[in-house]
């Protein structure tokens, strides 16, 4: 079928549209839209529509076929009939006209899928790195370009138990109580590492008793998973924070099912990375998360070695310990490591060889091969089925609810809080120990600050007790 002027209509894929946008940028310097459209063998109206939808095309590029499953018109129509029936929509016909409009509305073009499932297409990666990414980044400074991603963490796992957990994906059940999901987010310069969000199974672990200050944010979900509601709440709070700073930022995330699209945001532009390619395209996956886990594991190894030498019974590692360890590990990651990982993901030009060295400087872990990477395949979210989507549509679920296993079976110990007076004695003993080492100036300064803080709390408590005695 021919369009006006004898130009044939074409079914344009997302890749075609991206190539058109790139060619237009190159030619628009000295040619008008009509001339460029003629060179591309396109109707002027089509070119104008593509230009008008430039941001939408770039942001949603390469998000189709996330699961790499072959789909045709009959399958889509059959599934649409099933969904309509279950939602009590009687007037849906699923005609040939409907499927054609559906394909046109969503820019779907049927093509043969070649290669293995979930394989990464080098051409798509090149198209993203060379064409799409530079266009998205060009209006933002490196300080305002962020990447966020979740990872699973077997937080209690000591080296002597690692074989039990090897390659465990841990989709639920008993092992979910041994796992946390952690959301990390940083900008491209490493100058702003956001506070970690940790997702645990229990809403109120016993170890949280009497604790008022936490090193990171903590929420609960009955499988310790990231969910759409948790992500929306997190990103909306982040959006509000940037709004107060009068700052607009760019945030890249993967196509995880727990990352909903079309979230109304004012100061954050949310961009989804191409599916099945985050191992090469996501900065956090280029070494940042690996270094974070290595630093966390190093702390566990040091604790493990200390317990081997100690004559006192070891205190079980609990969720609160894990929050402190993982937050400390996050704080220790340098800006250079982060910048190198963004370079490796093609967000910034330059050499990234220092990334590999950053992932090797952990001699304490050499005695435990495979220990640092033991939970690299752990699931952090669930793929929602049609059943779950329909159920949520009819009656949204409470994602923070706790199932019957969570608190009753919580194994965390409730260690009594040390009295301030006793703690001051320990600080003094620590100061004597630290002063016996060379280059201890900075550590001594930290101990002095802790001592001053404890003294201020002790004086406040003494005053309160005197007032209470007077009232009595």
Structure explained in plain terms:
- This protein has helices spanning 14-27, 33-39, 44-52, 54-59, 73-86, 96-105, 122-137, 162-165, 228-244, 278-281, 288-309, 319-332, 335-344, 354-358, 386-394, 420-434, 441-471, and strands at 145-154, 179-187, 197-200, 217-220, 249-253, 268-272.
- The chain is elongated.
- The model is unreliable at 1-8, 64-70, 112-118, 161-168, 170-176 and 395-412 (pLDDT under 50).
- A 6-stranded mixed sheet has the order 4-3-2-1-5-6, with helices on one face.
- It has 472 residues and is an alpha/beta fold.
- It has 17 helices and 6 strands.
- The protein starts with 13 loop residues before the first helix and ends with a helix.
- It folds into 4 domains: 13-69, Arc Repressor Mutant, subunit A, CATH 1.10.10; 71-110, no CATH class; 126-159 and 177-384, Ribonuclease H-like superfamily/Ribonuclease H (Nucleotidyltransferase, domain 5); 418-471.
- Strand order, main sheet: write it out: 4-3-2-1-5-6
The coarse overall form would be elongated
Please count the beta strands (DSSP E, at least 2 residues each).
6
Low-pLDDT runs of 5+ residues are 1-8, 64-70, 112-118, 161-168, 170-176, 395-412
Radius of gyration: 27 Å
CATH class of the largest domain: Alpha Beta
* H and E string: HHHHHHHEHEEEHEEHHHHHHHH
What does the average pLDDT come to?
77
CATH-assigned fold name of the largest domain:
Nucleotidyltransferase, domain 5
Level-2 CATH architecture of the largest domain: 2-Layer Sandwich
The separation of the N and C termini measures 95 Å
How many distinct folded domains?
A: 4
What would you call the quaternary organization? single chain
Query: What is the percent of helical residues?
Result: 40-55%
- The proportion of residues in beta strands is 5-15%
Main location: nucleus
Keywords: DNA-binding, Nucleus
Domain HTH CENPB-type: 41-112
Organism: Aphis glycines (Soybean aphid)
